[in-house]
Amino acid sequence: MDIDQQLLAAAERLFDRNGFNATGMGKLVREARLSSRTVYKHAGNKNALMARVLSERHRRFFEHTDFSTTTALFDSLAEWFAAEGIRGCLFFRAEAETGGDIPEIAAEVAAYHQQLIEHIAELVVRETGQADTQLADQILALFEGATTAATYRGAAVIDAARSCACQLVNARTRP
Amino acid sequence: MDIDQQLLAAAERLFDRNGFNATGMGKLVREARLSSRTVYKHAGNKNALMARVLSERHRRFFEHTDFSTTTALFDSLAEWFAAEGIRGCLFFRAEAETGGDIPEIAAEVAAYHQQLIEHIAELVVRETGQADTQLADQILALFEGATTAATYRGAAVIDAARSCACQLVNARTRP
DNA sequence: ACGCAGGTAAAACGATCGTTTTACCTTGGG
DNA sequence: CCCAAGGTAAAACGATCGTTTTACCTGCGT
């Protein structure tokens, strides 16, 4: 059934564009062109739907993003924003809107963050030949910072962050 | 009257900890130990209250933060988080929760961002002797990224971001 | 002594929230 | 042929939302 995709696509779009709490189930039902009965049959309730949206976003993001090199990482981010618009990190926003109080959502956010950290740590090892927590934290900060700051400064921040990250990595590559 | 401070303090605490939309006026009235009549006499309505909270936060943040050197900037951020807790940027969160649709709030967020950008640009000039948009964007990304990533990685990200920013600035200081 | 500015407590407003229910299709397989 | 599965449309649920109103109290200036 593409009914699940229809529902999840509408939910992700509305949650992302207008916020989670500001998006009522009524508006969601209307936008997804489904009946509320069907929506609740498929999603359970709003919290579960939010969690599924995050889970799907998680999958799609790591499917899209290329962690093979630092350059590729920030290029992927720029591509993502060009295709999806720049509205900041949906996981951070979900956690902030819910105060971390809804376990199913907090779990999805934590899972995303853990995988993000791991992928960056592996990237560091791959590019410099050794683990380096501080370098990984720096790339993470540049990645998150580009995501946030690009919402009001535009895509130029991503270029700036990429060149900074590459500088850091190159400095470690040949000492 | 400290009635305004009482109201704004409670509002900022609840909005920050639990989110803007998730914080009802009922809970706010209870927590501020005021009557709803008094709250609406002082604040007008919820949107105006949110905007005033952001305006006050803006003032307080720039009063606290030391933009004189790159080191001082990230030290200030670490101090702020130690004192206030780490929950990410309240301005970004306000914009995201409202989808940018409430003009009074969007204006406060834009004003904050503009001043942040300006202060960092001046910091760059002060430390390197010339304007450098790319360097300013890099420091901005590190600043925003530290703010966001510290919510799940902790204060270590701030140290990492500071050392990265200082490296960048020093590389420009003596060429 | 009095009035009024400005506070409280509590009820009430209509709107909207998330969710469930009722009643009615449509459709593919035995 | 028909019946279960699974969809729609729409009404209804109680809770809570943001906001206003009613009724009362208090303290201060003249």
What keywords describe this structure?
Arc Repressor Mutant, subunit A; 175 residues; mainly alpha; 80% helix; DNA-binding; Tetracycline Repressor, domain 2; homodimer
In short:
Chain A has helices spanning 3-18, 25-32, 36-43, 46-64, 70-84, 90-98, 103-128, 133-153, 156-173. By secondary structure, chain A is mainly alpha-helical. Chain A folds into two domains: 1-44, Homeodomain-like (Arc Repressor Mutant, subunit A), CATH 1.10.10.60; 54-173, Tetracycline Repressor, domain 2 (Orthogonal Bundle).
Describe this entry's structure for a reader.
2 copies of one chain form a homodimer. With about 180 residues, chain A is mainly alpha-helical. The first copy, chain A, folds into 2 domains: about 1-45, Homeodomain-like (Arc Repressor Mutant, subunit A); about 55-175, Tetracycline Repressor, domain 2, CATH 1.10.357.10. In chain A, about 80% of the residues lie in helices and about 0% in strands. The first copy, chain A, has 9 helices and no strands. Chain A has helices at about 5-20, 25-30, 35-45, 45-65, 70-85, 90-100, 105-130, 135-155, 155-175. The radius of gyration of chain A is 18 Å and the shape is elongated. The relative contact order of chain A is 0.12. The model of chain A has no long low-confidence stretch (mean pLDDT about 95). The interface between A and B is large, with 47 and 47 residues. The structure holds a DNA duplex (30 and 30 nucleotides).
